Input
Amino acid sequence: MHTTRKRRLVALTVAGAAAIALGAGPVLQGADPANAASGDVVWSQDFDGAAGSAPDRSAWTNETGGGGWGNNELEDYTDSRDNSALDGQGNLIITAKRGADGSYTSARLTTQGKYTPRYGRVEARIQIPRGQGIWPAFWMLGSDLPQVGWPNSGEVDVMENVGYEPATVHGTVHGPGYSGGQGITSSYQHPQGWSFADTFHTFAVDWKPGSITWSVDGVAYKTVTPADTGGNPWVFDKPFFIVLNLAVGGSWPGYPDGTTQFPQQMKIDYVRVIDNS
Output
């Protein structure tokens, strides 16, 4: 994201940081990352399971806590099924709620220490929430985060939306010398000018050695290469982990107001990594 410093980053133990390209961890049945051909799905989370159950714990960890996450956010992230659960129809639902006392809860899920791809088409089919102060994101962080810190770890924001821009999504990279408000960023407008919250859309990056290309529903809208970093280090040729979260408030999106309705839900149909070599 292109805000001041974005999120409080929890340093978890990173097992498998030396994973091979396209990573380790749960894969689609029949797909072998070591023998994948271009176009093969090498990792997939389809969120099939009973309504109210947790997402696959071999793939996802719930990060918890509040404190603003570096962006003056309002939510407290929990591990409660009230905030993240399967819906029994093949979707993961991340729910942001407002309590009777005016506090907010939501969820943030990460594959840190469980799945760390290096390169591939990283995509998710998501129906985002809506409303002033609502901030859904699908993104990645370098798996060496605990060792080198942010922004040296690198960050790839595959999709972010701030509620006051219902027809716009953003794609950004952050690294040393181009972080926070200086992140290398671009945006994509809904071709009909409709709200992205109206239905599901597929958000993706095609990530290869020395390049990252963003797309929405198969339409590419931005490519970044080392030539775009202004001479600063390119930190994206290494394993990254995946993050899904739904924030409430913050310096960039602003804060909920009288028009914002709760609960709000971010619905994720699937997350996939596809060999694009």
Summary: The chain has one domain: 33-274. The domain at 33-274 is CATH 2.60.120.200 (Jelly Rolls).
